[in-house]
Design goal:
heterodimer, A: 208 residues, alpha/beta, Nucleotidyltransferase, domain 5, 2 domains, five-stranded mixed sheet, 6 helices, 10 strands, 28% helix, globular, B: 349 residues, binds adenosine-5'-triphosphate
């Protein structure tokens, strides 16, 4: 049983692959509640497939790039579950997961929401193999009339007039490509692409 | 063998800059593994939230393993998982909460999201046994300075007072910076003060008669910090050397004087004979000595855990979790949220 999950976008997506097909999947779009939604999602796909955590033999996790707070929820969950179960955990670039669901002829690009009016960006060839990226920047820098998948294309139609599906990654797709090994395997560490803001430290919380 | 009285509880703490994973069996401490990102924050003179969150993610699984090794237990032996659900830095809390949920779910064991401040009180059980029926707790750390009335540490506590501006630890850190000492400054002030004398009479915030009416159990340290800064500046302007050790000792005395005076007053006012001190500043040697001295005059027993258990750690979270198990409290659900401003009146999320 391969458990796949991704929290690098507003979608909290989980799927379970039994070695032949994807047997259960759960996707909820909510930008602010990854920490609350992920574990119930995992519980749901396992119970839907009538298996328990100990039946999981491999975990695949989206390593972004994506908004850091949500991204970390998925990665720490995958790594901690893997530590208990003593099973391998592999990382998959979230943009590659989006790309795997794109159904267009020829090359295309993926743009996801990086907040702060920027997008995470990568280009793919006709076989959905990544040819450049992932990187981060203003939509204008990457502007193209060609097909662009991902939430970024929906948010910035000026830069990306030809938005194509999907808008978000699907863990079911991720489970499929991870199962057949049709994707670059990465270490299960976040692709931050941005340095932590070297801003002044947060004001300490006042007590009570 | 695990019993309801003696559960093996794993506790995770990530509310600030330490990744703590502790293991307790009942009131017995088995392991207290802590990874700190404090060095990465030092050059900023305070904790940078994103740096802390990144460090928590890196340290989480290795710290869990280290804690199990120290305790000589396997993860599958764990009876319950506890985690700080708040208050603290939102992004940092979330790493610990997600890890704790993953552990609890995968092990099929109950999860307790607990209040960080209550955990600072509960940790004393590991050192001095069950808490008394009723006690006053003085919580003093880099983020908090509060006086609390505690009946049952798993239910919620009654806030008696708190700082109206800076936390005590924050004052230590700022004054340390002023004196050119490294971050976090508390331990350095403590060390340097030991070589100096209390020669300067710095202000004691909220101790004047008019303040006592409305703020009997509240604290204020920002005026003190400013007074120290003015004093040092005046010296420097006059081209005189700053007697750092004396400044540190005098500042420390002002803080400890107010903290202990109000803590003992809170015990007396509430007819309580036990004072528990927790939080990073409880490591301060002068605070401990002065509290014991003043409390003794009123036949009040002071309980302070050893310094290593006063600063943020996972064992304190495990200790509170174990108490929640023992008292049959309702576990948290898997969709529990981290709450960066979790009130002290909410112990279990
Ligand atoms: N010996 C000491 N004397 C005075 N202050 C100390 C001493 N040791 C540590 N401190 C102070 O304690 C604070 C750290 O406390 P703690 O580890 O409880 O963490 P915190 O991040 O402040 O946590 P909290 O979330 O509990 O507010 C720092 O401000 C530090 O300077």
């Amino acid at each position: 049983m391969l458990l796949a999950l991704d929290t690098a976008t507003s979608a909290v997506t989980v799927a379970l692959h039994d070695g032949t097909v994807v047997v259960a999947e759960s996707t909820v779009v909510d930008a602010r509640r990854h920490g609350e939604l992920l574990m119930p999602g995992i519980r749901w796909v396992l119970s839907e497939a009538e298996v328990t955590p100990v039946d999981v033999t491999r975990i695949a996790v989206g390593v972004g790039p994506g908004p850091f707070t949500g991204l970390r929820v998925g990665i720490v969950t995958a790594k901690t579950m893997a530590a208990v179960l003593e099973v391998p955990v592999l990382g998959v670039c979230t943009l590659d997961v989006v790309a795997a669901s794109v159904r267009v002829e020829g090359p295309f690009a993926v743009a996801t929401d990086a907040r702060r009016k920027e997008v995470y960006w990568a280009r793919y060839d006709a076989k959905a193999r990544r040819t450049s990226g992932p990187t981060v920047g203003k939509p204008d820098v990457f502007a193209t009339g060609g097909p662009v998948a991902g939430r970024g294309a929906v948010l910035y139609p000026g830069a990306f007039p030809t938005a194509v599906a999907p808008e978000y990654p699907s863990a079911a797709e991720m489970a499929r490509i991870a199962h057949v090994g049709e994707v670059e395997m990465l270490p299960p560490e976040p692709l931050y692409l941005r340095r932590p803001d070297a801003v002044e430290p947060a004001a300490r919380r006042r007590a009570l | 063998m695990a019993t309801a009285d003696d559960p093996l509880v794993l506790g995770i703490e990530t509310s600030c800059d330490e990744t703590g994973v502790g293991l307790v069996r009942g009131n017995t401490l088995l392991a207290d593994a802590v990874a700190s990102s404090v060095d990465e924050h030092a050059r900023f003179g305070g904790v940078v939230p994103e740096v802390a969150s990144r460090a928590h993610l890196e340290a989480m699984v290795p710290t869990i393993h280290r804690s199990c090794r120290e305790a000589g237990v396997r993860l599958t032996d764990v009876d319950a998982v506890a985690v700080t659900s708040g208050p603290g830095l939102a992004g940092a809390l979330l790493v610990g909460v997600a890890a704790a949920k993953a552990l609890a779910f995968t092990l099929d064991k109950p999860l307790y999201g607990v209040n960080h401040l209550s955990a600072h009180v509960a940790v004393d059980q590991l050192e001095h046994g069950p808490l008394p029926e009723r006690c006053v707790a003085l919580l003093v750390s880099g983020g908090h300075s509060s006086l609390l009335l505690v009946d049952d540490v798993t239910i919620g506590v009654e806030p008696l007072g708190a700082t109206v501006d800076d936390a005590a630890g924050e004052a230590f850190d700022k004054v340390a910076r002023l004196l050119g000492l490294p971050f976090p400054g508390g331990p350095h002030i403590d060390r340097v003060a030991a070589t100096g004398a209390v020669t300067i009479d710095f202000p004691r915030g909220l101790t004047a008669r008019k303040d006592l009416e409305r703020h009997r159990f509240d604290f204020s340290f920002s005026g003190l910090k400013t007074a120290v800064a003015r004093w040092v500046e005046a010296r420097e302007r006059g081209g005189e050397a700053v007697p750092s050790a004396d400044v540190a000792a005098s500042f420390q005395e002002a803080v400890c004087d107010v903290l202990t005076r109000k803590a003992v007053d809170a015990c007396v006012a509430n007819g309580v004979s036990h004072l528990v001190i927790g939080g990073g500043v409880a490591a301060n040697s002068r605070l401990r000595a002065l509290a014991v001295e003043r409390a003794a005059r009123h036949r009040i027993t002071v309980r302070v855990p050893r310094a290593g258990l006063c600063t943020d750690n996972g064992a304190m979270v495990a200790a509170l979790g174990a108490e929640a198990v023992r008292r049959g409290r309702q576990p948290s659900s898997l969709d529990m949220a981290a709450d960066s401003s979790q009130p002290i009146t909410a112990v279990i999320a």
